[in-house]
Amino acid sequence: MLNLTEELKALSLKAFKSLFEQDLDENLIQIQPTRKEFEGSHTLVCFPLSRFSKLKPEQTAEAVGKFMQENAEMVSGFNVVKGFLNIVIADKVWLQIASDILNTPNFGFKAETGREVMVEYSSPNTNKPLHLGHLRNNFLGYSVAQILKANGNKVHKVQIINDRGIHICKSMVAWQKFGEGETPESANMKGDKLVGKYYVIFDQKYKTQIAEMVEAGKTKEEAEKEAPIMKEAQDMLLKWEQKDPETYELWEKMNGWVYKGFENTYKTMGVDFDKLYYESQTFSLGKEEVLRAVEEGLAYKKEDGSVWIDLTEEGLDEKLLLRKDGTSVYMTQDIGTAILRYRDFPKIEQQIYTVGNEQEYHFKVLFIILAKLGYEWAKNCYHLSYGMVDLPTGKMKSREGTVVDADDLMEDMFATAKSRTDELGKIDGFNEEEAQELYRQLGLGALKYYLLKVDPVKRMMFNPEESIDFQGNTGPFIQYVHARICAILRKAEQIGIEPKVSENLNSLEPTENNVLQLIIDFPNKIEEAANGYAPSIIANYVYEVAKAYNKFYSEVSIFNESDQDALAFRIGFSKIVAETIEKSMNLLGAEVPEKM
Question: What's the number of CA atoms in the CB half-sphere (13 Å) around residue 182?
Answer without folding.
Answer: 20
